[in-house]
Amino acid sequence: MATDLATGLRVLRRDEWDAWYDNLVRAFGGGPSTPEERELDRSLTEFDRSLGVWDGRTCVGTAGAFSFRMTVPGGALVPAAGITMVSVAATHRRRGVLTSMMRRQLDDVRSWGEPLAVLTASEPAIYGRFGYAAATFQLDAEIDTSRAGLSVPAGTDDVRLRYAAPADVLDACEAVYARLVPSRPGMLARRPGWERAGLLDPESERDGASPLQCVVAEREGEVTGYARFRTKLGWGVGGHDGTVRLEDLAALDPATDAALWRFLFGIDLTTTLTVRGRPVDDAWQYLVSDIRRCRPRRRDALYLRPVDVGAALAARTYQVPVDVVFEVEDAFCPWNTGRWRLSGDPKGASCERTSDAADLELSVRELGAAYLGGVSLTALAAAGRVRELRTGALAEAAVAFGATVAPWLPHGF
Question: What is the largest CA-CA distance in the chain?
Answer without folding.
Answer: 74
